[in-house]
Amino acid sequence: xxxxxxxxxxxxxxxxxxxxxxxxxxxxxxxxxxxxxxxxxxxxxxxxxxxxxxxxxxxxxxx
Length: 63
Ligand code: F3S
Hints:
This protein is of the alpha+beta class. It has helices spanning 15-19, 44-53, and strands at residues 2-5, 24-26, 32-34, 59-62. The chain has a single domain, classed as Alpha-Beta Plaits, CATH 3.30.70.20.
């Protein structure tokens, strides 16, 4: 699984980071960045939760 944040959509809600800080971080400006684009298998469920929880639908994944 590869995770991507659409920086045009992200509004800095930070929910992704609060759910899975192992994969998502926040920049100094408060927007999400992906720390580990190749998501380790043990974090895939948390990333799916983060995707569903982002109000801006800014996170997508591909296999
Ligand atoms: Fe941005 Fe959504 Fe995370 S708005 S900070 S990708 S919860």
